[in-house]
Protein: Urea transport system ATP-binding protein
Organism: Microbulbifer rhizosphaerae
Amino acid sequence: MIRIEKLNQKYGGTQILWDLDLDVEKGSCTCIMGRNGAGKTTLLKCLMGLLPASDGRILFGGKPIEGRAAQARAHLGIGYVPQGRDIFPLLTVEENLQIGLPARKDKARRIPQRIFELFPVLKDMLHRRGGDLSGGQQQQLAIGRALVIDPKVLILDEPNEGIQPNIVRQIGDVIRMLNEEDGLTVILVEQKLGFARRVGREFRLMQKGRIVAADQMAKLDDGLIRQYLAV
Ligand SMILES: Nc1ncnc2c1ncn2[C@@H]1O[C@H](COP(=O)(O)OP(=O)(O)OP(=O)(O)O)[C@@H](O)[C@H]1O
C-alpha cells in the first residue's frame, strides 16, 4: 500500500534519512521504533509531505506521491495524527472534527457516527473548546479528526506521549479495532515497548535514519531491543 524507496532527507547540511526503504502492506499494523533522534518523526513528515525529501520515491497504492502537497496526500486517504496532537485550541471539538470533511471523497457533510462510537467523550464534549480538553481527550480528538477524512491508512506519531494510562489503554483498543474490524492500515511510531507489542503486528526498527530491522512483532526479541531500543 505504501512503498518508500531510497528516501533521503536533510535539515540544512545535516542528513537525517539515508536511502531509507519501507514497505507497508494493506491491512497491516506496523510499528516504527527506534531511539530518540533516529528519524522516526522526520520519516512520517516526509511521508505526509510536511517536509521536503532531498530525493527518493514514495508510492501510495502504486502511484508516486512525492511531488504532491500534504493536503493532496490527505485527499488520497492518508490520515495523520501528529506528535503533540496539534488540535485547534480555540475551535470547538465539533469544529476541529469538521475540518477534515472537505477531504472526504463522498463529500459527506456530517461527522461519521463511527468516530463517536470509538470515542464517546467527543460526543459529550462536542461544543467545548479543544483547548479545554485534557491531554488524553485531545489525543482522542486528534485521532477522530484524522478519521473524518475516511482514510485508507492511519499514521500516528507517538499517540501516548504524556497521557494517563487508562486513556492509553483505550487508544490502544481503538487502534486495534480500526485495524482488525475496519481493515484500516496503520503505521504507528511508538517508543513504549508494551504498547507497541500489544498494538503492532509488525515492527520496523530505525537507527541513524535507516531501517535496520523488520519482522513480525512476535520476533522482536531481547537482542534487538538491547541493540536498537535500550537507552
Ligand atoms: N527542524 C529541525 N531542524 C534541524 N534538525 C532537526 C529538526 N527536527 C529534527 N531534527 C533532527 O533530526 C533528527 C531526527 O529527528 P526526529 O524527530 O525525526 O527523530 P525521532 O526518531 O522522531 O526522535 P524522537 O523519538 O525524539 O521524537 C534529530 O537529530 C533531530 O535533532
